């Protein structure tokens, strides 16, 4: 018994030491690279469809201003081409996120902040699953939350940039993405979405999160508002090329 207990304690200590060390030489696999490329393609398609939908609404608004007939703009001069209320639909019950009725996409109301969170949501999902696959170590299927910035930079060739999301620590960002990642009692990052989940699942999660925030704001909870950092415009270089031009 004492020997077995000692061996167990030693093994646990070894695993803790192993988990505490970063895998400095880990490299993204072809699998993760292909998934990321597939994601970027889908993301651009969704943004394009949202833009097309906004153009439809703008055209309907113009027709209304010009006094178009009711049958051209909908009953009672509505600016929407459908009676479907998107907020009444179950985001996980919608068959096609690109068309919930009359061409309206599920993500029609996404603002820049929603797109940013959607992108980070998928990236972190991909990261934790790619780490497990690439390391291929049954004793270490996850990594510590404090190593998130390191592995994010290694896999995506850019910084995590918490300030962009108005966050001062990893935990604050993960709080916005709790439907995708969780921190275990030992500080490990645990995926909440299976590896084989379709990419449109993350759009559904993002829309559900957007709705929850909006309901909280409507109820007077100002803490639900996102406070993302505004992107600074690129400085223009003067014609003499000596340095940035003052705005």
Task: List the main descriptive attributes of the protein structure presented here.
two-stranded antiparallel ribbon; elongated; 247 residues
Overview of the structural elements:
The chain is mainly α and 247 residues long. It is built from seven helices and two strands; from the N terminus they run H-H-H-H-H-H-E-E-H. The protein has helices at 2-20, 30-65, 70-73, 112-135, 148-156, 170-176, 200-218; strands at residues 181-183, 189-191. A two-stranded antiparallel sheet has the order 1-2. Strand 1 and strand 2 form a beta hairpin. The longest helix is centred in the N-terminal third of the chain and has 36 residues, at 30-65. The protein is elongated. The N and C termini lie far apart (74 Å). The model is unreliable at 72-77 (pLDDT under 50).
């Amino acid at each position: 018994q004492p020997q077995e207990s000692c061996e167990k304690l030693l093994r646990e200590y070894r695993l803790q030491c192993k988990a505490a060390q970063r895998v400095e030489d880990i490299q993204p696999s072809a699998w993760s690279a292909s998934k990321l490329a597939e994601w970027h393609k889908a993301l651009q398609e969704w943004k394009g469809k949202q833009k097309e939908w906004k153009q439809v609404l703008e055209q309907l608004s113009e027709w209304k201003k010009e006094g178009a007939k009711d049958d051209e703009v909908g009953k009672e001069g509505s600016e929407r081409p459908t009676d479907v209320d998107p907020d009444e639909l179950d985001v996980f019950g919608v068959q096609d996120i690109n068309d919930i009725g009359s061409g309206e996409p599920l993500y029609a109301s996404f603002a820049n902040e929603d797109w940013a969170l959607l992108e980070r949501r998928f990236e972190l999902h991909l990261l934790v699953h790619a780490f497990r696959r690439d390391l291929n170590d049954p004793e270490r299927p996850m990594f510590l939350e404090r190593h998130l910035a390191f592995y994010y930079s290694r896999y995506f060739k850019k910084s995590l940039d918490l300030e962009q999301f108005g966050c001062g620590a990893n935990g604050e960002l993960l709080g916005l993405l709790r439907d995708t990642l969780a921190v275990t009692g030992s500080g490990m990052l645990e995926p909440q979405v299976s590896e084989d989940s379709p990419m449109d699942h993350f759009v559904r999660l993002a829309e559900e999160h957007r709705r929850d925030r909006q309901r909280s704001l409507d109820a007077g909870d100002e803490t639900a508002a996102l406070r993302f950092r505004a992107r600074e415009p690129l400085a223009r270089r003067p014609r003499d090329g000596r340095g940035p031009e003052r705005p």
